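yo

u said u wanted the structure for the complex thing, so here. seqs first:
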Amino acid sequence: MFGPGGRFLLSALVGFWLVAALGRVAVPPPAEDDIAARLEHLASPDARYDVVFFGSSVVRRGVVPEVLDSELARLGAPLRTFNMAATGSQPFETDHLVSLVLHGMDEPPRLVVVEALSPRFESLIPPVNAYGDKLVYWHTPANTVRVLRARAEAHVPGGIGGSAGRHLRHALFRFGSVGQGRRIAARAAAVPHTHAEIEQQRGFAALEPAPGEPERFMPPPGWAALVAGLDARNRRRPAVRTIHRSWLEGQVSRIRAAGSEVVYLVGPSVRANVEVHWLARNGHLPNLLAFDSPARHPELFATGHRRDPIHLNEDGAREWSRQLAQSLAAWLDAGSIPR
Amino acid sequence: MLFFELRFFVFFALVFAVHWALRRNGPRKLWLLSASYFFYASWDWRFLGLILLSTAVDYIAAGRIAAETREPVRRRWLVISLALNLGILGFFKYFNFFVQSGIGVLQALGLPAEVRELAIVLPVGISFFTFQSMSYTIDVHRRRLEPAGGFVDFALFVSFFPQLVAGPIVRALGFLPQLRETRAFGAVAVRASLTLFLVGFIKKACIADHVAVAADAVFAGEAVFGAASHWLAAMLYSVQIFCDFSGYTDMALGLAGLLGYQLVPNFDFPYFARSIREFWRRWHISLSSWFRDYLYLPLGGNRHGRGRTLRNLMAVFLLCGLWHGASWTFVLWGLFHGGLMLLERTRFEQARAALPGAVQWLYAYGLVVCGWVIFRSQDVASMLGFFAGMLPGGGGGGGEALAGVWWFVLAGLALAHAASFRFDLPARFARLPHVPFAFLYGAAWALALQWVATGHRPFIYFQF
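structre next:
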């Protein structure tokens, strides 16, 4: 059937595919940001949570489950929460983590709270994160097809070109488990994760100042104007064509199909979220809890509560968690979300 | 475009397919020349002009030298060729170094001197292709070689992409005759070439780039490491530079082999040498033989008495050091090796040769590692600091240590290297039957990819 060249190529491909497949099975979830340990914790039989948070560092550094739970209990809505957000997490990456958690937990959480980031996807991969374990990890064939389709349909300026190459490269990296040898070896050596800290912090990690950075937040020039203008910026009309709504709708239906309700969340950062607010105003985004209005949440933008323009410090995180609990409780009372 | 990048794989697949699809030798050579220039332009298209200029001048000069019978005219053309090549090399590689050094001397003498540095970008592989091109005109001048059959042949000899940017330094005498014949795919040692490429890839991407992380940590000098960590880092650097450079060479030989051409080997297990003299017969063979044939022997070699031999040796090693880069550490590295070569020409050699084999090896490897410390250091001050750290109790008492796992890595690599030396593992692998070879080859690639270090580092020798 095949000539010598064909047999050679076929044998080489079979050998490659076999070892690559074994490698993919053996690669553990990313260790960055305790993702693997937190996933393992959520999949353990005694992990029972009513609410799980997903998103980027804004959520990871800002939502304190311990504060949230006690405030919810005080308000008569006793819920047990867990923070599964990851630093630098982009919408597709978050979506992948949501799927892993929902499939891994014995009993799905009642609420899945997802940080609503701009669903435009053109700046999906910050260069600093390129080839990071977690970025490669979520590039399964299904996710890669989904992200490519989303970009193709979203009429993003410049089209699908450059970004498609990057996604395909990441998918190839995942297919071959490129650079994952050390992690496979560590898994084989059965280095155990420590769950004690995760159980105690439940996924929250305060953002400490970097070495040499001042303890207190030093507002950059124009900070006051930036904060003052945020509400107005968020009311602008986005380039609607570039928003990929069907992907968003797909995420909502996937979460609901798993037996959970989805709540979208916007954190107190000075990044404008024009698309997200437009989607919510027009009824395309269910259950949005937004905290990026300095007029309504001035405490969260006070310099004493911030680590930088994007993140809160630990005091700020506790303050936000209290406010978040109040908003959640109000929604639960209003029957927007089943109790 | 690095040999281990995805885009290079795509590039080579295209070059390979078209090369063998073309039946006639002329179009094939033209295709390879175009691919080579594209490859070079992918680094920096501005330097294409430089390589074209060097190629054109040497092609014309060699033609005139061959056609001319009058020796003064022949010599004049040779001087033009050498002056151009050395001028290009001198300007791009050494201009700022010599200007800075000159200013340093003047300032040390208390004379006011200040010159603004030129922002010169070093063209990649310049030391390799200028040496290769120079050897051609010299060989034609010596009547050891007929000029190339045509410009395409010569241009391809200078720019052949597998060895363009980091050698081995190919001689026209060995390469031009290969270009005259139409290569037949049936004569290609496919399995051996594929194995060489894979071995080179593993050396570079899976070993050199991993151990570099540990070596860099100590050489950076930002933390206080103890003496053991300093020695470990120096040995890991010896692994890094060997795997990086010989890995590149293996890949170059494999790629050339797949296109039907043979390049000269550049390494022969240099760390198994028992003397520095033997080390230089095994390390970067194409460069050391170049210096031997075009500098050491023309200077008189060892034929004019002890004094002249010593002078010639030191001159060769001084220039060998400078060839690697415009820095005093490279000059010192060359002098260090030159000095050791001199030492091995004294009575010391009899004493060394009388030592047990293991002690001889320890002597040679220990000194080579010390040489790499000079080579790796950013400047003389950090070199002295590193040597101080290698002394017992050095490194400020050694508050920090490299992870112990690196000792196991080093031991494992040494064992693998010894096994490869003893059993010639790559050759045995290449001799496997067709289908088992292909299956294991694919599996080995998948395994190698799992162990690549993420975060690309260019080959060390690209900067030379």
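The mean pLDDT of chain A is 84. The first strand of chain A starts at residue 51 and ends at 54.
cya
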